[in-house]
Amino acid sequence: GLPDRVTVYEVGPRDGLQNEKAVVPVEVKAEFVARLAAAGHRVIETTSFVHPKWVPQLADAAELLGLVEKVPGVRYPVLVPNERGLDRALEHGVEEIAVFASATETFARRNLNRTLASQFEMFEPVVARALENGLRVRAYVSMCFGDPWEGPTPVGQVVEVGRRLLDMGCFELSLGDTIGVGTPGHVTALIGAFGGPSRLAVHFHDTYGQALANTLAALRAGVTVVDASTGGIGGCPYADSATGNLATEDLVWMLHGLGVETGLDLASLVETSTWLAARLGRPSPSRVVQALGET
Ligand code: HMG
Ligand code: MG
C-alpha cells in the first residue's frame, strides 16, 4: 500500500540555492520562501549556519531569517554543523535545525573537515544543547547509496551512522542520495536494514533520473516524509557530480496522481519555479515545470 498523505520537506532555499554559481539576492530568497509557504508548504528548509567561506551562497543566513515573515504552522529549519552554527541559529530565533553527517570517510573530510568517527564529536554537543533549548533536531546522512570517491556505500555503514544520530535524539533521519546513484531495489534494502520506515525520510538527487522511482520504492516501504526542491534546483558543492534534488513539482504530480495528499498547490509551485528560473537565468530542470510552466 501507499500512505494517504505525504509531508514534502522542501529544501529549495537551502539545498537549491547553496549550489548556485551566483549569489542570489537576499530579497529574492525571502520572496522564494514566502511563495513556498503560500503554495502550501508546511516545512521549508530555509538556509544554513555553516562556515560562510565554505558556502558563500548562504552567508546571508541571518539577514534572510530577519526578512522571512513566519507563517503560523510552517516550520523553517536550518542546517547547523557545529556549536558555532547552533549559537548563530539560537541568536536568530530558529526553532528547528538539521545536522548533516556523512556515511563515508572521504565525504566527511571534504564536507565537514572531519573524519567519519570525529563527526559525531561535533554533532553530540549540538544535538544535546539544541534539545535542552527546546529545538527539534533532524539529521541527514549523506552518500547513503554511493560516493564519488569510494563507490557504492555498504548498507551496514549507513545504518551505523544513522542509528548514532537517532540515538542522540534526532526526531527524523533523512537518507541522502547526494549524487543520485541509488536505484529502487537499493532503497528498499536500505530501509529494510533500518528495520522499517520509522523516523526515516528520503532525500534523492536526480542525477541519474532515478529520484521518482526511488521515492515510490520508499513510499511502498512505508516512508511518509520526502525531501524535494521546487524547480529541481540543488546539489552539494563538495560532492562532484551532484545535480539537482528531486523536483517538488515532479513529486507532487506523481503523488496527486496516486491519490496521495500533500496539501500543495501544483500550479502555484510551477509559477514559483518559473519566476525563480527567470531570476537564476536558466530554465528549471523539472519536467513538470517544463510541461506546465509558461515560457
Ligand atoms: P572547520 O574549518 O573545521 O571549522 O570547518 P573549525 O571548527 O576549525 O573553525 C574554524 C573557524 O571557522 C573558527 O573561526 C570558527 O569560529 C569558524 P576562528 O576561531 O578561526 O576565527 N566557524 C564558523 N563560523 C560561522 N559559522 C559556523 C562556523 N563553524 C566554524 N558554523 C565546518 C568545519 C563544519 C564549519 C565546515 O566544514 C562547514 O561549514 N561545512 C559545511 C559544508 C556544507 O554546508 N555543505 C553543504 C551542505 S550538506 C549537503 O548539501 C547534503 C544534504 O543535502 C544531504 C544530501 O544531499 O546527502 C544535507
Ligand atoms: Mg542534498
Automatic annotation (TrEMBL):
Molecular function as annotated in GO: hydroxymethylglutaryl-CoA lyase activity; metal ion binding
Keyword NADP: no
Keywords from the named record: Lyase, Metal-binding
Every Pyruvate carboxyltransferase domain range: 6-270
One GO BP: ketone body biosynthetic process
EC number: 4.1.3.4
CDD domains: DRE_TIM_HMGL
Listed Gene3D superfamilies: Aldolase class I (3.20.20.70)
Listed Pfam families: HMGL-like
EC supergroup of this enzyme: lyase
Superkingdom to which the source organism belongs: Bacteria
Keyword hit for Metal-binding: yes
NCBIfam families named in the record: PRK05692.1 (NF004283)
Family: Belongs to the HMG-CoA lyase family.
PANTHER family in the record: HYDROXYMETHYLGLUTARYL-COA LYASE
Protein name stated in the entry: Hydroxymethylglutaryl-CoA lyase
Organism this protein belongs to: Streptosporangium sandarakinum
Organism ancestry: Bacteria, Bacillati, Actinomycetota, Actinomycetes, Streptosporangiales
